[in-house]
User: Fold this.
Amino acid sequence: MGIIRESDINEIRERNDLVEVVSDYVKLKKAGRSFRGLCPFHKEKTPSFFVDPLKQLYHCFGCGEGGNVFTFVMKMERVEFPEAVKLLAERVGYEIKYEKGESRDKSFRERLFSACEEAAKFYENYLWGSEGEKAREYLERRGFSKEILKEFRLGFSPSQWSTITNYLYKKGFTSEELASAGISIQGEKGFYDRFRGRIIFPIFDLKGRVVAFGGRILEGEDKDEPKYLNSSETPIFKKGSLLYGLYQAKREIVSEDEVIVVEGYTDVLALHQGGIKNSVATLGTAFTIEHFHALSRISSKVLLAFDADTAGKTAAQRGIELLSEGRSEIYVIRLPSGKDPADLAREKEELLKVFSQPEPLAQFCIEEKIKGYSLENRVERVKALQEALSVVRSLPSYLAQEEYIRLLSERFNFSEEALRLELKRGKRYNKQKLEERVEELEPQIAAEYKREEELLKIFLKEADLAKKFVKDVQDEYFQSLAVREIFSCLSPYFESGKEPNLAEEMDKLSEESKSLLSRLMLEEVNADNKKVYLNEILVKIKEYFLKEEITKLKKKLSENSSTVNDEIFEEIYRLEVLRRSLMQEV
Ligand SMILES: [Zn+2]
Assistant:
């Protein structure tokens, strides 16, 4: 599935009325401005789930779930974002794409296994026969030994159009079977060979049966063709969880209790030849959670050895999912640029050095998540910290979380206590009642969070007041990272006095911010004079902020004995004066 265009996403969001979509799952009743029903995300007897038809947002006051039409479908159907978009597109008849699926009976599958085995034998013989000389020379040049090529049963395919197809016809296979096994392709003039003039890498399942093939073009051959070609998915070949070399590496992985995942088939060959036999490769796809499940069953340590670019993408897409599994330790190895393991295997010393310095996946994910942010910029720094915390939150071990809290506290200059609260808050946010959540926080900071949320709520509901007061508010005033994130995201709206397009902005926010925002939208502001109320809150927030700053500086003062003391003193004095003048204002 490719990337969905933003205009399509917007179109699909607009065409799917949230009230209608929710009504497919939940019986809703009109209640004032909103609709109300029993929450589908937690068990309850009295309805606390609200849908706002104007804002196109929902929120549950019982469990804290909230969001827009996409998050609703994601959670109800347990799907990822693109899949939710697709479902909603189908719902309104907008650009539907169906994927073809096949289900076949057992004997048909058996026929496909034997077709693949026959094809593998044919390709092998072809490589070692007179026609395979060019291919053998090429493999020899790349440094592969005869033993390794035999072990992995490499082959070579004829460059004519239908040699293997005709050969397998004679063996009694039908064109339907050959096409289903991924060996032949239906063309205008009949069936022809999928792999022509390629070095063939048979792909084995865990039982050692050939289920598919990868084909690499010979150097200098037809430039229009892709360098690598894989069988398409077939009834016996699902790319998701299968890994190249797993059958050959299985034993070594179990005895070493460690597996190395690389990118290319030739990398696997090179490593095995170099004596590193616990290595496998993905089948030209990204590393998935299914791969991880397959490997964590047999090994407690998984090393992902990708080039920096691929490793980054994998961490971004799957990192958190992988971390939260917690079944095996996952490490990342950044390979030196411009070198693949096949190059490195020839310099075994260097390779062993690289492999001996793996980086824990959590650390790697944090770096990947924050690398796009400028930490000098205050708004971006908070966002970066939110991102980093989302990684820490996914760690299943309390001890590991603590370790990263210490590191992040130093790096971002936030107290460990605040980070711990933030972590706890985010984790339970969706699962716990608001009152319990607040009780768990320390009373002082809980009151502070409440005030910050009140301020944000007024800003959301009263565009005039927001416009007037926004210049007095700095996002660093907010102790609650969720409030801070929402505020910095929406402040352009507040400044211009325009109504924010919340359903759209939602998609940019973290889970906990989504939940908070949808809740605030549905709550009322309980104050006779909103301007006075806002002013009161703002003063208290500023005061809290100044007090915190002063505490931080004093702590710094006690740690630092030398030169910078004067500056710190001056700063404390300045903040103290500000705070006092603030108190007089009230
Ligand atoms: Zn609920």
In short: The chain has a mean pLDDT of 83.
